[in-house]
Amino acid sequence: MIKITEIRKEGQQIILTIHAVVPANHPKFKRQEYKVARTLTDFERLFLYLRSTHMHILIPTPPSINATELPIIKYSARKFLSRLIHHEVLSMNDGVIAFFESEFLILHSPQSAPGISEKSTRNKIMSILPADIKDPDEHFDHYKIETGRSEHILNDWMKKAEDIGRMEISTANTTDDCSLQFAALNESHKDATLVFQKAHICFTKMAETYYLHSRYISSIFCELASLQIRNAQTMNACLNYRGELLKSYDYACKRTQRKLGDMNSLKQNRTIKQNKVDLAIEEVNRAKQLEDNSRDLFKNISDRLRTEYQLFQKYRDQDVTEQVLSYSKKQLLLQQNVLLCLEQALEGLYFDK
Question: How far is CA 338 from the centre of its chain?
Fold first, then answer.
């Protein structure tokens, strides 16, 4: 259970007080309950640390380091931490433990991704790998297409929300102008003072309602959409990482075949000394070991990513449903408030039939 009990500003920093109850009998956490204060920078550092150490896992999206809307910060911080401590792999990470149990000073460089011992060597290999290799599991092609579609739809969603926000501001400005016009008419038409007074008050309140709603659309709803976009981008990065491992495995297989070919050529050449043949056999064995390691890593990462993709779908559907329902409720509240303004304006007025 995660609760954000307080959010406060200190200078340029936003600080969150977090009350966390972790699962009972967790093998890594020393206690079951924690109360800590963390900044948005701390959340971002933890996210980046986890992305560097678990490139094959969907890291939940933290609150934006530039976020200003407190409801969004609270919502996204709670989701981020709750999903971390309930994740079977991430909850075991030293960075996650340190986030709750210490001053959270990750001073050392993050370890390389699992199975990759020398980053420079890997980058060198990656630079000479073929661009297109047929994926042995067609499901992952589907995952990439669906993740790309999700990101595209979410980007469209945010653009439409921005358009709606601008329309609401325009409506608020127009309503405010009408309020000023009614105020002017009230001064020049003393015989209809009550009507124009009520109209002026009505349109002033309506303008305030539209301004508040435009702020919700432009700031909060768009920020919610951006969180979902970042989540889709993280999932896509995980799938791309698997694609790199597939290329590495393909390269290792071809390297083994080349070494076998070289060894067989040496064996057939009677003029070649035995020590050279022995060296070639050693190279074949090393190539086979690299191929086995690459295959095992690729298989393990693929198995894990199937679970992570299911989580991505689950979290996406949950979060989008929550956000659409929240938007619908806000839209309904807007219309109710506008209707209330009109009812109050008409109250006490009588018109000839």
Answer: 35
**Domains of the chain: which residue ranges?**
1-111
Whether the CB-CB separation of 215 and 226 falls below 8 Å is answered with no
Contact 56, 308 (CB under 8 A): yes
Alpha-carbon gap, residue 317 to 154, rounded angstroms = 12
Q: Place 213 in a pLDDT band, splitting at 50, 70 and 90.
A: confident
What are the CA-CA distances from residue 200 to residues 51, 157, 184, 189 (Å)? 55, 35, 9, 13
State the chain's mean pLDDT as an integer.
Answer: 81
Residue pair 291/249 in contact by the 8 Å Cβ criterion:
yes
Distances (CA, A) of 16 to 7, 114, 152, 321: 5, 32, 32, 26
- Secondary structure (DSSP) of 160-201: HHHHHHHHHHHHHHHHHHHHHHHHHHHHH-GGGHHHHHHHHH
pLDDT, tens digit (0-9, with 9 covering 90-100), for 44-65? 999 999 998 999 999 999 998 8
Strand partners, 9: 14
Given a contact cutoff of 8 angstroms between Cβ atoms, the answer to whether 265 and 230 are in contact is no
Token pair belonging to 285: 């064995």
pLDDT by residue (tens digit) across 166-185?
Answer: 888 888 888 888 877 777 77
Compute the distance between CA of residue 350 and CA of residue 353 in angstroms, rounded to an integer: 9
Q: Shortest CA distance to 315 belongs to which of 18, 19, 3, 61?
A: 61
Burial of 294 (C-beta count, 10 Å sphere; 0-12/13-18/19+): buried
Cα dihedral value 157, 162, 164, 165, nearest 10: 140
Q: Is the pTM higher than 0.85?
A: no
Query: Does position 16 have pLDDT exceeding 70, yes or no?
Result: yes
Q: CATH classification of 1-111 is 3.30.1520.10, yes or no? A: yes
- Strand pairing report for 33-39 and 2-10: unpaired
